[in-house]
Every structure is written in structure tokens, then in C-alpha cells.
Amino acid sequence: MHSQDRLAYSPGPQQTRGAALIISLILLLVMTLLAISASNSTVMESKISANLTDRNTAFQAAEHALRQAEAQLIELISANDPKLTYVAPASGVTTINSNDTGIFNHNPAAPEPSWDLPWTNTNSIQDTQAATDLKSPDGTPLIAKNPRYQIVIYPPYAGAKTIQIDGTQQGAIPVTGQRFIITAKGWGLQPETEVTLQVQMYSGV
Q1: Among 3-12, 67-76, 153-162, 193-202, which stretch is predicted with the lowest mean pLDDT?
Q2: Strand ranges (DSSP E) for 79-135?
Q3: CA 73, CA 203: separation in Å to the nearest integer?
Q4: How many CB atoms sit inside 10 A of residue 76's CB?
């Protein structure tokens, strides 16, 4: 009986090189995809960071205008300025106080409040100081344009304030007051980045 030798299969040099080339190409493709994904992620994070920074700048601008408006209003209140005299607007019409730009008389019959109307040079006050204050350390402006604000005057309130001492009601005294709403808008370095802030102030209460 003859025995038959079995020869083990061994790939040739060309086949080995071909398999190594395919594996190398696959690894290269995977690395390229990973690099592209990392690059896109970095770009997206940079955009998000830039947008957040610009929105924060717009917030600072609006807050700056708000502080300017508060300071102006306090000065007008202290001086009993006639600019703050409430004049009831015609029904359904939002009118600006003719004594000063940016100061409105509250009109409950208007279809929309003054701060929802388009803001222009004739119905809002520009905070020019913001351009000087909101700059980077090297002097580069951080805002595309100056923030603006409006002041809305409400009718004077007349009522009574209860006086209590040690929990015992002593009576009431007449009080008068006026309500104001200040609305401020700020913009970042990108004009489309806009932030609106609003506060209420009272006088004489």
C-alpha cells in the first residue's frame, strides 16, 4: 500500500502583497473617515462657541442700554420732567410722546405694544456709549451697532397704602405712583444676533 503525501497550501508572494494592500486601503479609509468626522465636530464646536460668545455680547449690549435708560429715567423722575407726563393716546393708535424720542404713552387699545413695532431713530433712543465700553482688549469693537431702548409711561396710580405697626393696622395714607416699562435691544458682532431685555420701574409708590 502506497502512502500519498499531502502538500500544505501556501499563498504566493503576489497574493500576500495583494491582501496586505487591501487591508491597508481599508485602514486608510477608516482613518480618513475618522479624521473627517473629527474635523466636522471641531468646526461645529467652533461655530457653537462663536454663536454663544456673540449672543453673550448682545446680552451685554442690551443690559448696557437698560442701565442707560434706568439712569435717564431716574434723572427725569427726580427733576419732575414734563417728558414723563402721561398723555392718553387715541384709541387703537400707539403714539410716541412728542416731548422726547423713545418715550411712549401706554395704550391698552393698541393692537401691539410699542416694543413689538419696528425700532427706528424716531421711536427709540440709541445708547452711543456702548460702542466705547464694549470693546476687546485690543480695541476691536464687539458689536455691529449700538443698542437701543424705549421707555413706556403708564397712567399715574392713585390709591392708599395700609400702615401697620406691630401687626396692628393704623390706617392708610394716599399714595400716587407711575409705572414705567423699559425695553432694550442689543446686537452682537453679527447683526442677526439680537437680545431683548425688559424691566419695570415705579416712581412715587
Answers
A1: 3-12
A2: 103-105, 125-126
A3: 10
A4: 18
CB 56 within 8 A of CB 187: no
Which pLDDT score is estimated for 92?
A: 78
Cell of residue 164, nine digits: 401697620
Instruction: Judge whether 133 and 120 are in contact, CB under 8 Å.
Output: no
Cβ atoms of residues 124 and 162 within 8 Å: no
- Distance (Å, whole) CA 17 – CA 28: 16
Amino acid sitting at position 86: Y
Contacts of the segment 6-12: beta carbons below 8 A, 24+ positions apart? none
What is the residue extent of each domain of the chain? Answer: 13-203
CA distance 47 to 52: 9
Sign (positive or negative) of CA dihedral 195, 106, 119, 68: negative
| pTM of the full structure | 0.72
Q: Could you tell me which residues come within 8 angstroms of residue 131 by beta carbon, excluding any fewer than 6 positions away?
A: 141, 143, 146
Nearest Cα to Cα of residue 143 among 198, 102, 192? 192
